Amino acid sequence: MEEKDLQNLSETEFIEQYKKTEKDKYEKPSIATDMAIFTVATKKVTDNRKKADKELQVLLIRRGGHPYKGDWALAGGFMGIDEDVETAVQRELKEETGVDGVYAEQLYTWSAVDRDPRMRIVSVSYLALVDQEKLPPLQAGDDADDVRWFTVKDRVMESRDELVDGTMIKTDKIELTLISDEVTASAVIEKTTITEGANVKTVVTISERNGIAFDHAEIILYSLERLRGKVNYTNIAFNLAGEEFTLPDLQQIYEVILGRELNKVQFRRHVENMVVDTGKEIKTGAYRPSKLYRYNAAWVYDQWK
Amino acid sequence: MEEKDLQNLSETEFIEQYKKTEKDKYEKPSIATDMAIFTVATKKVTDNRKKADKELQVLLIRRGGHPYKGDWALAGGFMGIDEDVETAVQRELKEETGVDGVYAEQLYTWSAVDRDPRMRIVSVSYLALVDQEKLPPLQAGDDADDVRWFTVKDRVMESRDELVDGTMIKTDKIELTLISDEVTASAVIEKTTITEGANVKTVVTISERNGIAFDHAEIILYSLERLRGKVNYTNIAFNLAGEEFTLPDLQQIYEVILGRELNKVQFRRHVENMVVDTGKEIKTGAYRPSKLYRYNAAWVYDQWK
DNA sequence: GAAATAGTGTCTGTGAGACATTATTTA
DNA sequence: TAAATAATGTCTCACAGACACTATTTC
Questions:
Q1: Is the terminal CB of chain A with fewer CB neighbours within 10 Å at N or C?
Q2: pLDDT at A181 over 60
Q3: CB contacts < 8 Å between A and B, how many?
Q4: pLDDT for the residue B300
Q5: Which residue segments constitute the domains of chain B, with CATH numbers given?
Q6: Which of B11, B23, B113 sits opposite A82 (nearest CB)?
Q7: Prior bond to A29 cis, omega within 30?
């Protein structure tokens, strides 16, 4: 049936006909999800410093089969034909973390033609944040060795600005290092931002890849940026804290995310309206106890004040 | 061949075999793009006020066939199996606007199972901004009537906050109105934000739909929010201005996007470093002429100051 | 000079950033 | 009392917001 004739049908007839003759005319990609699941963990290391240190970790899974066999990949999976992406993500989050209702937000959809050698896979990536206290210990089952939390470190190796003829070219070379007990994976990512007039275009390429599967180093970096970008003006970081927490602990979570130390007074002023004093205290050492707070459910981010 | 046996092959053999037997095991969705293309246009209306007024417009296309026949939809199309989403978007932007290198940024990927009655379509939406001066007049061809710029108005009809048991439920009822010469399309969108602890989830439903196809009212609203959210701390608005512009004009672009008036002094201070004086002036009426500025290519957004 | 808009000077309040001080605990 | 960390007081500086004023044009 010609396209023209199709349009003379009623809507119901059209759709019936479309499903028969048009629906599978073109080859389609698969849709997958990739989730950068983060937690802030307390370092086990007992070094000289008394102050407990925390670190940002991401969950990775060792690839048991081709492609990228043996490399570490983000959690994720294929979207079923009868579910939407959000449902797939919540299903997979529950599977991987064992926790219900984990915070997740959509990041970006990756669609490079060659991002998977098997076939065309378009991936919708998500940023997920879990409170470490809620996490069950990683399953000690047969594949315990294949699911791990990696400490995340990123470092700008090189930063170059070039202004040519009204076009600003900014090149950043960023090293991403992921460390688990005995395993270290890493990547070097080159990020080029071309600003022509006010039109900003960013091209990202992975120039070195050691043990990180697919384009996942890029996705992890992107999720880090999103996390850092939102930490200061949303409640996003509270998803990484327990029900009750001390302000010094909360501050450490912020510091671990931002990768720098924060001023105490300023930090407390900043979160003042986001927390409620529980009236409880907690003693953690040979010094003044901390007050316990909880998240203030009534807090609203007044976008434009 | 069993999954187990597949994994004993070399990577090349595996992929070859995968493409033969595994690749099309499951039904796949189609990938489409939807683009909210905005421009800021100068009102033709000559009312009593001398000050020229601008308005925010979005490009819509009348659907010639089922489904949503006769309704207005965002520009877009299917992603080819040999191109990535960005390429598809740039191709379609050129087709629709006639302009090369239009600013476009990825917004969100929509995947509701029933968002298209024909088949499963996952849509990657984009926000695009074009300078009106660069736009050729809409093609006067046979389908000139099918492509139009609509003035965008949105209004919060109702806003309710409810705090139940540590869970904050914020419900906003928003009216979106799109006006072209003789055509008006509109929708009422209900946006519910559920904040449980710090975990924010937003559910959006279209409760009334008049002449806007698919879930496109939702996408337009989402793109408006993104535009407003970025206007104050990026150079995004400059994509809506010409090569050279006056500060009063630039301020109007900001005002039209934000939907409110801005303080002149404060605005000028805000954009001070983003613009360069061209030394030229432009006379537009019986009053002091405006200086012409251009975008300052050397401006960089120092993310954390 | 009147009308209209462009552009500048300056006061005020808020909030970020930094430094200093006090408070509370245990050894 | 020393050591360690929690919590608060307060100074400074940058900037957002507002108001008032000056500048330039045409009629």
A1: C
A2: yes
A3: 179
A4: 81
A5: 30-231 (3.90.79.10), 236-295 (1.10.10.10)
A6: B113
A7: no
